[in-house]
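request received
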Amino acid sequence: MFTIKRSQKFEYAHRLLNHPALCQYLHGHSGNAEVEIMSNTLDDQGMVEDFSILKKAMSEVLDLWDHATLLYENDPLISTFMLHQQRLYLFNEPPTAEVMARTLFNKLQDFFPGRVKRVTISETEKNQATYDRGI
Amino acid sequence: MFTIKRSQKFEYAHRLLNHPALCQYLHGHSGNAEVEIMSNTLDDQGMVEDFSILKKAMSEVLDLWDHATLLYENDPLISTFMLHQQRLYLFNEPPTAEVMARTLFNKLQDFFPGRVKRVTISETEKNQATYDRGI
Amino acid sequence: MFTIKRSQKFEYAHRLLNHPALCQYLHGHSGNAEVEIMSNTLDDQGMVEDFSILKKAMSEVLDLWDHATLLYENDPLISTFMLHQQRLYLFNEPPTAEVMARTLFNKLQDFFPGRVKRVTISETEKNQATYDRGI
Amino acid sequence: MFTIKRSQKFEYAHRLLNHPALCQYLHGHSGNAEVEIMSNTLDDQGMVEDFSILKKAMSEVLDLWDHATLLYENDPLISTFMLHQQRLYLFNEPPTAEVMARTLFNKLQDFFPGRVKRVTISETEKNQATYDRGI
Amino acid sequence: MFTIKRSQKFEYAHRLLNHPALCQYLHGHSGNAEVEIMSNTLDDQGMVEDFSILKKAMSEVLDLWDHATLLYENDPLISTFMLHQQRLYLFNEPPTAEVMARTLFNKLQDFFPGRVKRVTISETEKNQATYDRGI
Amino acid sequence: MFTIKRSQKFEYAHRLLNHPALCQYLHGHSGNAEVEIMSNTLDDQGMVEDFSILKKAMSEVLDLWDHATLLYENDPLISTFMLHQQRLYLFNEPPTAEVMARTLFNKLQDFFPGRVKRVTISETEKNQATYDRGI
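response:
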């Protein structure tokens, strides 16, 4: 089986409400998204998919996450951020790397139905979370 | 001449008020600080300075910047952040990598007077700013 | 399925007795351990497991490997090292990356029973070994 | 199950005939090949396979790709390159990362029959393709 | 003194005519350009120069080098490449990292007169060349 | 002025006698050496020096440090290591990154008299030491 993987960085602020340690405070990361698309065969160009197509699909989400603040929809900071016209992306769960990975995975399914193998979000070089199709 | 360099990461949110592009919106970075300390001679341990000493000095500032929001003191978001007890670090200039580098440089002068050679702050892997002693 | 992965470095000396080439001589590496923990669901914090919990579990082993010498229990150098009170970690097999990966995997099973997906030890940036649960 | 992975860089020129964008023009990459070999057991040395054996097997192909030009066998530039005695490696498909990964995978099967798990070719740090044994 | 540094990758083919070893054959690299611009003071935005301005200036050259073939103007392959409408960038010296660094340095002087501190071209992660203003 | 820089890794064990913390115990690193050679002019090949020449000069020292144990000549472990025919490299100072950098610098002066600009030894990705010609 063939798989292509493309990674892309994005610069975001977030915080995890109710987190017992420092993650409860607004902070930020140079996040990295890695997306894997699979195929049993190659197209006429010898490709699973042109990397530029994958880039474009990823950007549908990553352009919204880049230079933005990612928050849980219950976060009390939201009203002030909206008043000051910040770029916000709201989740109905805490904005962890796990939740971000599943969110990106699901959005990419629209572009590559049944062919998204795995999405990984790296919060830092040390910490990352992956969502995949299971076995 | 001998120089030692130590680098350390920190995860911060910031924004640049009045920036014409996306940097005006609150976002974040996995920042990296590189500090260089110089000496013409080595101590009994064969060192410019024990790396653990340099680490401790850097942490005096970086522990305040890590998992925090760095803002210009005129930023209208500050009052809300204070109300919600966020970890803030305020500058009397825009919180650019240049300003952060000079700030860290000046703080380290207290620990290593006349021996701080250069401080570099990387906002991303591609973009960084350095403050040094000039020639 | 969700997976989180955390990596951590450690600085160790080792040697491989009977190795036909340079690995027979005592040398060292900046090793890297990557541990993956899996889960079908997320907890209330939107996490597989808090990264700090995973860090703590990994440290149970990695704190013993860091700034230490890893040797096969039959190594004739051991008595001298003990006499000079070195930090030793002994294996009943050669201290290869493969053996280290399985050792760390098995220790982590105590903390995350049935949920350790894969452990990878990188000896260098080029060479690494993985132990996983099979299929 | 145990897996070892070795990566090796190679510097190559290529182009993709009929590609709609810039890849149609001759250009180059610092490619990276990652090869994974698996085993359920370890040998007497505590290894899946000595890394030097894997390195030697990989070099059978990578020495031909390094400092060479990789082209589709129909490429009209070939005759001129042969006249000027260039180092060429020709494929009967477009020389994409996908095709390169499968080519290397198949060659390595001669050395490690049934034990090659996965081969990944990175064109750039962002874009890579993998060929594996499927499930 | 303040310095900002921006790095950018580009994918190019080249060869060094008359080189005694493998560099005489057409091959390629994922090159990296690092440009440093200096200033004694910061502007109103707290910057040496907006990174986007530096990016734009660098692109004036790097867009020509990316997905292109860089050759010495005497290279006998040029006529064939022109016939096949390749993207070529010709130098009146061998296209080494040293020559590329000086070329980019001189072009950037038009944008930042007297303020270009140093330009570094990395051919590979191991090998790089720098051109600077001397002392 | 032109400078070329080449980096090379080496895998070594060492310890720092009398160090107050963990460095007193035998441990190891994947060290990295970066050597910079300068020149005001380029040779006929458009080079400061062929990278292969620099590689060869660096190897004169690095081949002795790789897969070896680096110790202060007073270290009480030496006699046992000699008895067991280990690969040793002894310094008349503690084997710190600083001392290693100056040692490599001085050896390279034999190959490139007056043209060695700077030698940097990285113990880890975070900690490094440089020896240069001063101003």
